[in-house]
Request: fold
Amino acid sequence: MTQRRHFLRTAGATLLGAAAVSRAGAARLPEAATHKGSATLVPPPPANGRPYRPLVTLNGWSLPWRMKDGVKEFHLVAEPVTREIAPGTVANLWGYNGASPGPTIEAVEGDRVRIFVTNRLPEVTTIHWHGILLPSGMDGVAGLTQPPIAVGKTWMYEFVLQRSGTFMYHPHADEMVQMAMGMMGLFIVHPKDPRQHRVDRDFGFILNAYDIEPGAATPRIATMLDFNLWTWNSRAFPGIDPLVARTGERVRVRVGNLTMTNHPIHMHGPHFEVTGTDGGWVPKSARWPEVTTDIAVGQMRAFEFDAIAGDWVIHCHKSHHTMNAMGHGVPTMIGVQQKDLLEKIQRLVPDYMVMGDRGMHDMAEMEMPLPDNTAPMMTGTGPFGPIGMGGMFSVVKVRDDQRPGDYTDPGPYRHPAGTLASEYTAELPEAPQAGAPRTSTAPLQVRKPHDGHH
Reply:
């Protein structure tokens, strides 16, 4: 504890603090890299500094840095951005360096980092380093630890990274608006010893949500609960990339939650164990096997598993969070006969379709007319037809022959013979009365799927 107090006291005395950068100083700023695409960019190994295995940010990228006098310098630009949430659906958001969420910052335990933040928003902002131990004056809370960053100004934050782990950054100025508009990003601190907490693949993303009315492009910022676009890194399925691995590899997934509710993240297939939070790494003696971990608002979780061959779904287990553009006032129509009504309405509106009389899966199969710039409620297609999911949903794709370091989508999984569920076609036995012995001895008959190679 004494050492920590000494660090905070000396760091606070030697750092410049958050201060506006002069025009002459701006000429010496590190370049502010920009990326506006929505595909996953796998970062290269670090060109300098301590070695580490880079994080693969799902549908995102990592921010480059420069070394100056032994300090890692980064440059974030807070600005309005456009983001493709799903194919054909674009949102007007706020973010950093052309993207929402902003680029992932990666550094190593013990590094001194200097982060310049330029404000190109139409209002003031700050930036808070969520979960990171640092001097109070670097904590980024408007009015309490610093004045807000004025429009057009650049401020500087500098601190030493004391511990490794999974962290985030986001504003603490007009927070309701700025976070509702998409301002957030991952901050990953790797262990100083690369052998510590080592995995073969390391993925990360942030849970975020938007309320964007069908046909619109800008979120409603006053929404507290009734969101209709539940996203990972501001992407909704089928726009979320798969998490790709090789059979037997140790895989880590890091998830941060900056929505307004909790999310039970569930993965099919391999069991995993929670190995880290934003409070630090979980000791091995405190870990336990799971298939679902609930991530509360403002929390981060890192979980790890040994990859098993197959296509394994990973999703939020709140069922409404695996849909897109869902309306909250939709009545339940199950069992309501609409045939006569359908014929009458189609005389006036030829494209009108019945919805919900047998459940909602038909929505995944039909292409219903939608307002422009609106993602279908349930979409995405697999090798056996419509998947019927949207929102917070992706697939962990594990293959025996996936090359180490290769993150390209390997396509549909080819199920080994005898491992694929099939339709039962024999006559079903009569249901026995309670307590009566079963008499049917008819052999089971199974019809193989039409597409035999899956």
In short: Confidence is low (pLDDT under 50) at residues 1-21. The domain at 2-316 is CATH 2.60.40.420 (Immunoglobulin-like). The helical segments are 2-14, 23-26, 175-180, 339-348, 362-365. The longest helix spans residues 2-14.
